[in-house]
Amino acid sequence: MRHIPLLASCLLVGACCHTLSGCSGPPPVSTSMVEATVSGTVTINGKLATEGEVEFDPANYLRKMEPARRAPISADGRYTIRTLLGQNIVRFVSFEEPTERGMAYDSIEFDVKEGENTLDIRLPLNQ
Predict the structure, then answer these.
(1) Which domains, from first to last, does the chain contain?
(2) Is residue 2 within 8 Å of 83, Cβ to Cβ?
(3) Contact, 76 vs 48, CB < 8 A?
(4) Confidence of residue 125 (pLDDT cuts 50, 70, 90)
(5) I want to staple 52 with a disulfide (CB 3.0 to 4.6 A). Which of 20, 59, 73, 85 is the partner?
(6) Nearest 5 degrees, angle CA 96-CA 125-CA 58?
């Protein structure tokens, strides 16, 4: 009977260690092939962008071959794009200012939900 408390203690310690170390395996990601619309504005240093592109990349380890989608920025700083539900990596490239011509900004993650989505992008991202 002495071995039962020792065994229970070992199992409890093992369970705690497994819980604290996190789960193994890849994180959960979307496999959905359903599209939704995302729209918004792009602001650079407090001013609406007047050109450039927004890119939404829905690829993940379960949607490896899914291409990124691109949408132009209109003269009033707005964009509209259709992309897959779930996490998307969003990037922006501006062609406006000579010092930033062709420069890609850092990316952000955006979780696209069913229906209409809004994402207003303010650059640089650390503002």
Answers:
(1) 35-123 (2.60.40.1120)
(2) no
(3) yes
(4) confident
(5) 73
(6) 90
pTM, to two decimals: 0.73
Q: Which of 26, 41, 30 is nearest to 83 (CA)?
A: 30
* CA atoms within 13 A of residue 66's CA, in its CB half-sphere: 23
The 10s digit of each residue's pLDDT in 23-56 is 567 778 898 999 999 999 999 889 999 999 999 9
CA distance 38 to 63: 19
Opening angle at CA 18, ends 16 and 23, nearest 5: 135
Scan for tokens 């729209």, then name that residue: 39
Which distant-in-sequence residues (6+ apart) come within 8 Å of 40 by Cβ?
78, 79, 118, 119, 120, 121
Helices within 22-123 (DSSP H only): none
Pairing of the two strands 35-44 and 116-118 = parallel
